[in-house]
Write a structure and sequence with these properties.
With 259 residues, this protein is an alpha/beta fold. The chain has 11 helices and 8 strands. Helices cover 43% and strands 19% of the residues.
């Protein structure tokens, strides 16, 4: 694969192959383009795996985006890739198959809803598409919630609050810095009910039965909202990283949608 700068240097991607179809891989939070490579390598046509803004070689956004803003930025990348494949092949198909894991899947769903003319299909793995049920969603510790309330009233210092965030926050939160921490906080609270209901392309859902970040219940509820042909594969004894545990299954589902 060759590393390319796209959308005026805002996104970098490894691109391999030539001609149609076009497949675009979108990685999860805290990962980069290498994480999605096994799930899309060997697929026909042109394959591009992106570093989403703020990951790998791609610079972070100037402000705290959610998945919908990421989708608008990635749409520009997909448009550029489509134009390039059309120019090189002399044939225009005008759409891309998106393969997304976790946060990358959030972006893929938003892009397909915003710009259906750019997307031929979706393969989604372990994506937090909907808010979790009350039974499944864990509340922060009482001490942290109390400190957070006191911080809003300026009764707990910024330094103390940051120490508590590091103690009680997720590993992703602790690792994120600057604007990317704000992106994470914003994205975690998002739900894509409306986007799922507006999809116009076929969808393949691939889930780990032991996924705790996006439990199977999320996939089942999402499947019920999707109006287009949709399949759901649940892989036993696999957690959130189903895309690395079973990349062959993602490739099979991609091939089925391409066919």
């Amino acid at each position: 694969m060759a590393l390319r700068s796209l959308a005026q240097g805002t996104v970098f991607a490894d691109v391999a192959g030539s001609g149609w179809p076009l497949v675009v891989g979108l990685h999860g939070w805290g990962r980069d383009r290498a994480d999605m490579a096994p799930a899309v390598e060997g697929l026909p046509g042109t394959v591009a795996v992106l570093d989403l803004p703020g990951a790998g070689s791609s610079p972070p956004p100037a402000e705290a985006w959610g998945a919908r803003e990421y989708a608008a930025a990635v749409a520009l990348v997909v448009e550029e890739l489509i134009a390039d494949v059309t120019k090189r092949s002399g044939e225009g198909a005008n759409r891309a198959l998106l393969v997304g894991h976790s946060f990358g899947g959030r972006v893929a769903v938003c892009l397909a809803a915003q710009r259906p003319e750019l997307v031929s299909g979706l393969v989604l793995a372990g994506v937090p598409l909907l808010r979790r049920t009350e039974q499944a969603a864990a509340k922060p510790a009482l001490g942290f919630r109390l400190a957070r309330a006191l911080h809003r009233w300026h009764l707990v210092s910024d330094a103390r609050m940051e120490a508590l965030r590091q103690r009680y926050g997720s590993a992703d939160y602790a690792a994120a810095q600057g604007v990317m921490r704000q992106v994470l906080v914003r994205s975690v609270g998002e739900s894509y009910d409306d986007e799922l209901a507006r999809l116009e392309c076929p969808v393949a859902l691939v889930w780990g039965a032991l996924d705790t970040a996006a439990p199977v219940d999320v996939a089942q509820r999402a499947e019920a909202l999707i109006p287009t042909p949709c399949t759901l594969d649940v892989v036993d004894a696999v957690g959130h990283d189903v895309h690395t545990a079973r990349p062959d299954l993602l490739r099979d589902r991609a091939l089925a949608l391409l066919a």
